[in-house]
Design brief:
The complex is a heterodimer. Chain A is an all-beta fold. Chain A has no helices and 11 strands. The radius of gyration of chain B is 14 Å and the shape is globular. The chains are: A mainly beta, B mainly beta.
Chain lengths: ~110, ~120
């Protein structure tokens, strides 16, 4: 119930492609869904986040699509660049204590020039 | 102007030793955390402190003891280190109260602990 399942584990796309990373959850009490980006040797950094009362959020080239009925959400990266090569984590949390994030397993993205 | 800083960045030690990792944040947050990232990059919360008070303690061996001297600092002491403790440990901070949407987690750059 507390798990967030993320797929795929790894992804390779060409520059300009649109990688899509998917996450699914079971606990309907989750009400905050962030995506974090992690570069080697660095800590995860917040990329974009969504609440379940909206179905889509866009920030620059990054878009979250959220399907509440299916309990799924996904990250789309438009016009991907080699600099986007990193590990991406979806996460979820409940309520106001947002620091207790339940993370997905991570997706390693490689964008080829 | 580092927001969440951890020391040391690398820590190599032998089984059975005791070691500490220090963390400091200058974001004015009232809540700090320790997360563990294993060799498969899976991230899991260990502890959380709010204004020096322990508020989250996940299933972590008693050998791990967090200490928060003030709300800007959270240290992690590990006794009798084991091979399985090898991982990257991340400190993080946020505001506990208020909208989750407006108070995201800020992570440090991690401490890579290797137990030989």
């Amino acid at each position: 119930q507390q798990q967030v399942k993320q797929s795929p584990q790894s992804l390779i796309v060409q520059k300009g492609g649109i990688p899509i990373i998917n996450c699914a959850y079971e606990n309907t009490a989750f009400d905050y869904f962030p995506w974090y980006q992690q570069f080697p040797g660095k800590g995860p950094a917040l990329l974009i986040a969504i609440r379940p009362d909206v179905s889509e959020k866009k920030e620059g080239r990054f878009t979250i699509s959220f399907n509440k009925s299916a309990k799924q959400f996904s990250l789309h990266i438009m016009d991907s660049q080699p600099g986007d090569s990193a590990t991406y984590f979806c996460a979820a949390s409940i309520g106001r204590n947002t620091g207790k994030l339940i993370f997905g397993q991570g997706t390693t993205l490689q964008v080829k020039p | 102007d580092t927001a969440v800083s951890q020391t040391p960045k690398y820590l190599v030690t032998q089984m059975g030793n005791d070691k500490s990792i220090k963390c400091e944040q200058n974001l004015g947050h009232d809540t700090m955390y320790w997360y563990k990232q294993d060799s498969k990059k899976f991230l899991k919360i260990m502890f959380s402190y709010n204004n020096k008070e322990l508020i989250i303690n996940e299933t972590v061996p008693n050998r791990f003891s967090p200490k928060s001297p003030d709300k800007a600092h959270l240290n992690l002491h590990i006794n009798s280190l084991e091979l399985g403790d090898s991982a990257v440990y991340f400190c993080a901070s946020s505001h506990r109260e208020g909208s989750s949407y407006n108070s995201p987690l800020h992570f440090g750059n991690g401490t890579r602990l290797t137990v030989t």
